[in-house]
Amino acid sequence: MKKLGKVGAVLALTLSMTLLGACSSNNGGNTAADAGKTDSAATKAPAADATKEAKDITLGFSQVGAESGWRSANTKSIQDSAKEAGYTLKFSDAQQKQENQIKALRSFIQQKVDVISFSPVVESGWDTVLKEAKAAGIPVVLTDRAVDSKDTSLYVTFLGSDFVEEGRKAGKWLTEQYKDASEDINIVELQGTTGSAPANDRMAGFAETIKDNPHLKVIASQTGDFTRAKGKEVMQAFLKANKDIDVLYAHNDDMALGAIQAIEAAGLKPGQDIKIISVDAVKDGMQAASEGKINFIVECNPLLGPQLMQVVKDVVDGKPVEARIVTEETTFTSEQAKEALPSRQY
Ligand code: AHR
């Protein structure tokens, strides 16, 4: 091996340090990107600034809107947890519009926040702005909802529920209820916001689970945008168009609660004449379940604030973060809802 000499040795040292730096400080990381976001064992190692104290951390958070009880509980959890952690929170409400979220993300980039987090209103169309965040060296944490970007190095992690599994839980309960059915069971479905991860995934998980029973038939499926008002409006239309509805599957409690008003106005008994399954398990939904108006609720936990603040700290400190953090959730029958209701936090 040739001798390097003094200048050569310094150059070689500089080069090897640069290479090492490039491997460990990938800012939003790509170590887990190769493994894909569904690999829960994979971790990403974001850029480190371990010297930052909590009071110096600024988190930019773009919320979907205020469309449901779930969303209000989620907003409160994030705001309370940021306060408790001592971070500065820049909070922006997108009012269910992707363009507002993109504007908010760009404004966070301009303000040079330490970490950006957001709950994407829809799954597609984020690559450009995520690349801008990456170029600015600002790590992005997805909470609650995912994006469909192929390049998973554009965000550090996705913290939230497994929506496909939630749909499966709803479908499994229904399949069990009607396992001995000898006639067709007519199901209507109230979908969440078109193009959103929970609407896509809850529909897919449900369809996958009921497909083996040919009597379980989805006769109508339409968006109710996750709101009570739309849930009521669409259910009214379903009732008008279909004489014989056996089951309503609503992608959230708010739409189920709106639909209950429509069902009662039509002179029918929710939970009896029409069986109802919904998702979320917020207080109002649990109240309706405890009264027998909703038969089964799949829980979707909105209290993501404490976990998000921990992830933000880890990201700022340059600690490895799991590429996918799945929230733990349960289900409630009417009886179980009655028991759980008094201690329900949201
Ligand atoms: O993304 C979570 C979903 O969004 C909740 O189930 C729904 O209520 C909300 O609006």
Automatic annotation (TrEMBL):
It comes from the Bacteria. Keywords: Signal, Sugar transport, Transport. Transmembrane segments: none annotated. The keyword Chloroplast does not apply. Residues 60-319 form the Periplasmic binding protein domain. Its main location: other. CDD domains: PBP1_galactofuranose_YtfQ-like. Residues 1-21 form the signal peptide. Belongs to the bacterial solute-binding protein 2 family. It comes from Paenibacillus silagei. Pfam families: Peripla_BP_4. It is found in: Cell envelope. This is Simple sugar transport system substrate-binding protein. The keyword Hydrolase does not apply.
